[in-house]
Structures are given as structure tokens and as C-alpha cells.
Design brief:
Blueprint (H helix, E strand, L loop, with lengths): L8 H19 L9 H11 L3 H8 L3 E4 L15 H11 L6 H13 L3 H13 L1 H13 L2 H12 L2 H7 L5 H20 L3 H15 L5 H15 L12 H18 L1 H9 L1 H7 L9 H13 L12 H24 L2 H25 L14 H17 L3 H22 L13 H9 L5 E4 L7 H9 L7 E4 L5 H13 L2 E4 L3 H9 L4 E5 L4 E4 L2
Helix pairs in contact: 1-8, 2-5, 2-22, 6-9, 6-10, 7-8, 7-10, 8-19, 10-11, 11-13, 12-13, 12-18, 16-17, 17-18, 17-19, 18-19
Length: 528
Amino acid sequence: MQYLKNAPTWLRFLIVFMLVLGIFFRLFNLEHKVYWHDEVYTSMRAAGFTRQEIDKEIFQNQIIPVSELQKYQRLKPGSTAVDTIKSLEIEDPQHPPLYFLMARLWMQVFGPSLTASRTLPALLSLLALPLMYGLGIELFTSRTAALLATALVALSPFDILFAQTARQYSLLTVAVIGSSFLLLRALRLSTWQNWGLYILANTLGLYTHPFFGLTLIAQGTYALLLMTVKTSKNTTVSRNYIELSTLIAIASSLILYIPWLLVLKNNYQRVSDTTNWTRAIVDFLYLVKLWILSFTALFLDLDFGFNSIFTYLLRLLVLLLIASAIYTVCRQTNRPTWLFILTTIFVPFLLLVVPDLLLGGKRSAVSRYLISCYPGVQLAVAYLLATKILQRRRFWQGITLLLITGSIASSTVSAFSDTWWSKDLSYSNGEIARRINTINSPVLISDIGDDFTNTGDLISLSYLLHQDVQLLLVKTPKLEELNMISSVAKKSQTFFFRPSQKLVEAIKQEQLQMLPIFAPGRLWQLKN
């Protein structure tokens, strides 16, 4: 592969601008978006609570102020890091403890505020930038391509979105990029220090999220395929040694992960129950739409509606760019380079797609589950743009500016929005809170819900509702509770938030009338 020439001055300034703007977007308006269901659980686990003990305390057929729920987002009195680990082990074993322990330590130092909670992943996401530069250098031996890849990560709407989310996904991105960088470095310069750092990165990745395993499988596949590559004159290690060293390093990381593997084994049923939603049967078109949205969100994330043709027309152009980039890498780089790009992108993707197609489900439709694929896409696009720009192709200079404009526009719109597609269950919570807050001293009634997700979203709403809002959290829809609801309704305007089917039927049997107020958020009002 030929070395790319030095970047023109305008491109250097553009890359610096992209880096600065990407850092700005990560730290801007951190508190603005809905603190959604999963983020609530991050704070809950970090604080040392379990959902079971919270449910037992709050669903007691009593009227409580909305601020009462906020105590479950602060450190549990007398708790330790062991309580955080136990909370995950008992109720969320599919989530390893590394990020949650970091969040607990962060909470102890900076407090439990929404801004503080989101500052941690935002700062962690910045580590991806130097690591991506290092990965680009190892892969392409080109500062221009490496810098452009770093700038694309910095300004990526997807990466910015999850950098502002109090979950482990920005740390997972760092682990994926860091592990890939250290692998290529160890293959180029085989020392025990480099292999040790690679093992450490893999171990941290596994303790961040189980889907880091997709990256390890991709890297193992890459090492096996390298066996068919004739050893380069610049490489001193044999093909057998490359394979053996990589596989031993991956095995060593898995050995260090055994303690949490045992947790997963001992709590397999809980893992199955809490991830059952990923096995929901969806049609093929739904999967295709989410694949398009997921991969193109790396560069463009303007939403005109899930079923709007305009959403996909713009995205298809980005998808065409990605396909062109992969083709260019395969045509213009040496075999180890394009093998790395292909295995990085397609091995994790196929590991999720194949079960969905054969067994049913939507694992591959969850954008955050595809994080292992994304650095390969960004590297390929960076190589394509760098190559064309340095050849003074004006058309591709224009494409680069359009792509960057789309990323800036996407991140700007997102920065000033109080919700986004990533908020999932809690997408409508902002609008729900606005409607309830227009009423003086209302009462919001809810129960655990049919899918047991109301606890997280009630706490999410507690960040948004006015302090005069009161909650009546029902344990079981029996006569006593129904009489209490009737009594409350005579004194205050009363709303229902995502009531279970049992509660709805009990209300109807008592000849009380519920009026739909906001269908997307399942908000009802009790007619007086």
C-alpha cells in the first residue's frame, strides 16, 4: 500500500474544526435530554439499590411527593461497591460491573446530578479519539487517513449521542477501538508488553459489556485468515506465531473474565428473562430499516419519521458512500488491511443477523449492539475520503463537506432536542411531563405495569415533573385501592401513567372513565 501524501492546509484546519466541535457537542447541554429508563437503572445500580427493594417501598398504595423517587438515584446509606455488584448479579447479570463501579465512584466524588452522571461517559468518549488515531496509523500508515478517521468519530452523531448517555456504551466504543489498535500494534511489534496491554484492553472490554465478545470473535477470525497471507518483509513474526499469539491473548482475556462468566451461568434464567425482548419476532423490512438507520447514524442522524421516505432517501446516499469506501479499501490496500476492515465490520454484524433471520428476533436492529462494527466503517470512509481528497478530486472534496455538514446538522438538532430515538421506552416522557405540569397539584397514578418497566420510567419522570405533582403508586387493583383512587379523583385532577391491563379492567368495573390524553406515552386522565 502506498503512503498517502500530506494533507492540504484547508483539510488540516477542517480536521481541527471537527475535533473541537465534536468535543463541544459531547459536553454541551448534558442535562437537556430525558434521563431515560436505562440511565435511571445505571444510577440505581451504582447507588447500590435493587429494583425489587424499590418496588417494595414505593408501590404501597400511598400518596407520595414525586421528589421521593429521587432518593433511589443517590447513594444508598451504608452501601458499598459490593452492593452495586450484587444488584447487577441478582437482577442484571448481563451487565458486567466495570462501568457501574466507575459510576459509583464518580457519584461519590461529584454527586448524583443528571449532569454529573452524563459527564462521566462524555469524558470517557474522548479517549476514543487518540486511540482511533493510533488505529488509523497502524492500519493505513497514513497520518491524513488516521486524522480524518479521528475527526469522523469526534463528529459522529451516534458517538456524540451515546457519549451523552449515562450507560457503558461510550466505554465500550473506547474498548473496541483500543483493543483493535493494540492488536495491530502487537502483530507489528511482538513484545510481551504489547500483548499484555492487548489482554488488558480485552479484559476491560469484557467487563464493560458482553457484546465486546463480538470484537474478540472478529479479531480471532482475522488472525486465522492471516494464516493465508504471505509474511511481509517488514514483519518478523511467522504466520503460525501470529495466530498462536492472538488466540492465546484472547484466551487469556476470557480466563480473566471467568468470575463474571460464572455469574452469567448461575443466573442464566434471569439473563434470558431480562433480554427476552430481543427475541420478539419482527418482519424483515423492519430489520432492514434499522440496519440502514444504525450504520448511517455514524454520519447522518436527521429523523423525518421511521416510515418516512425522506428518512431513507438521505440515508441511502450515506449507505452508498459506505459501500464505496469498503470497495475502495479492498481494491487499494494490502490484504491484511482489507481483511481487518471486513472482519471488523461483518463478523460482529453477521453474528447478530444470522440468529435474527434463523430464529427470529431483533438483536441486530439494536443500534448500540452494533458498536463493534462501527470503527471499521469509520476507518473505511476516512480512507476513501483521504485518498480522493489528496488526489485533488473536487467532487470528493464536496462530498466530504456535505458529509460533515450532515453530521453537524444532526448533532445540532439533537443537542437542542429533549428526546431522541435512543431514549426508547422513555421517548415520550418529556411530553408526558409537559402535559401533567400544566395542571395545578395533579395526582399521577401508576402500578408496576405489564412489562415491569414502570419503575424506571416513573423515576425518569421525577426529573421532569414539578414538585407539586403527587404520586399514587398502586400495589394491586383491589377494592381498597379503587376506593382510594375515587377519593383522590374528587379532590385533584388525576392521571394514569402506563397502567397495567389489570388496573385498567378494575377501573372499568368500578364504572370509572379513563380518557386517553397522550396515546404514544400511554397517559390517561380520570374523568371526574
